[in-house]
Amino acid sequence: MKHNKVTETRYYQSYTDDFVESKNQSFQLPENYVWIHRNWVYRIASKCLYLLAALFALLYCRFLLHVKIKNRSALRHCAETGFFLYGNHTQPMGDILCADYAP
Predict the structure, then answer these.
(1) Mind listing the pLDDT tens digit for each residue in 54-73?
(2) CB 65 within 8 A of CB 91
(3) Sign of the four-CA dihedral 63, 64, 70, 72
(4) Residue 54 domain flag
(5) 51, part of any domain
(6) pLDDT tens for residues 74-87?
(7) What gap in Å lies between CA 59 and CA 100, rounded to an integer?
(8) Which residues, in sequence order, are CB contacts of 93 under 8 Å at separation 6+?
(9) Which of 29, 76, 89, 100 has the most CB atoms around it within 10 Å of its CB?
(10) How many domains does one find in the chain?
(11) Measured on CA atoms in the order 10, 11, 17, 20, is the torsion positive or negative?
(12) Is 16 helix (H, G, I), strand (E, B) or coil?
């Protein structure tokens, strides 16, 4: 049995073109939305959550993925400015967590 599959080719005309439609497509944040929270409780909770995530990343990358970084001292010089780390293997969760594990 043969299935005739109709395909449509779309081309982007600008960087703002959007072919994906969702239920809340036109949602906009309110004008008074707070991006940076200055509340001390929020800031402390944020630091604690970040530390827990960094600890999880360390344990996950080191013991489950067996990630080893050679010449780690070269990366420490870039800890404040950032760096691009290229690897030829990808892992769905490992790629995200290795960024916290590296420096």
Answers:
(1) 899 888 888 988 888 778 78
(2) yes
(3) negative
(4) yes
(5) yes
(6) 777 887 887 776 76
(7) 11
(8) 60
(9) 100
(10) 1
(11) positive
(12) coil
Dihedral sign computed on CA atoms, order 26, 31, 33, 37? positive
pTM equals 0.55
Q: Is residue 45 part of a domain?
A: yes
Query: Which residues neighbour 103 within 8 Å (Cβ) at sequence distance 6 or greater?
Result: 72, 75, 76, 78, 79
How many C-beta atoms surround the C-beta of residue 67 within 10 A?
Answer: 18
Per the structure, the complete domain to which residue 74 belongs is given by 40-101
Neighbours of 79 (CB within 10 A): 10
Location of structure tokens 């827990």: 52
* CA distance linking residue 84 with residue 50, whole number of Å: 21
